[in-house]
Amino acid sequence: MDFKQVFTDEVRRLARKEIRIASESLYETISALKKQIAEQKKQIAELSKNCVLKEEKKSPVDEIPMPEDGKPLRLNAAGIVRLRGKLGLTQSEFARVLGVAMHTVSVWEQGRRIPRPAHKAKICALRKIGKRELKKLLAESPEVTEDTEA
Q1: Model confidence over 111-126: pLDDT tens digits?
Q2: Is 57 helix (H, G, I), strand (E, B) or coil?
Q3: Residue 91's closest CA among 105, 78, 77?
Q4: Residue (of 82, 108, 80, 91) closest to 144 by Cα position
Q5: pTM across the whole model
Q6: Pick from 133, 55, 62: which is nearest to 99 by CA?
């Protein structure tokens, strides 16, 4: 038996054992990080899907041509009530056409809040639309249930 060979084999065996012990914690860390990355990829996919759904969920009122004459949009609570009456719409129908909640229209008509600029532009665009076109928009517009647009 060669002492040199036995000694070399034992050193190799011990070195492999030390390397395995030292690298076990690294493997565990790598495994945990891989799981975390997989979870984050799922979350990103869900968020991307939600963003795409929100973008696709456009209201038919977005197809109404907006006034581009540069004039400031003048609109008040009484004007909204008058326009809605002229068009023969209920608050619910008016809200559906604009893509907002019925409560939002009610708050606008009471004068407690004013519409955001985008909604003002849509309301002003409704002034120039005919009843037939409006009924068509109303038929195409989805029901809005959540009030985030006030």
Answers
A1: 899 898 888 888 888 8
A2: coil
A3: 105
A4: 91
A5: 0.51
A6: 62
Residue 100 to residue 90: CA distance in whole angstroms: 13
**Under 8 Å CB-to-CB from 1, ≥6 apart: which residues?**
none
What distance, in Å, lies between the first and last C-alpha atoms of the chain?
90
Please report, as a single letter, which amino acid is at residue 86: K
User: Residue ranges per domain, the chain?
Assistant: 1-57, 60-140
Tokens of 122: 């849509």
Question: What is the distance between the alpha carbons of residues 116 and 98, in angstroms, rounded to a whole number?
Answer: 12
| Structure tokens given for 16 | 């492999």
Into which CATH architecture does domain 60-140 fall? Orthogonal Bundle (1.10)
pLDDT tens digit sequence for 26-67: 999 999 999 999 999 999 988 888 776 665 555 555 555 555
Per-residue DSSP letter, 60? G
Residues 120, 17: Cα–Cα separation, whole Å: 74
Alpha helices in 76-146 (DSSP H): 77-87, 91-98, 102-110, 117-126, 131-140
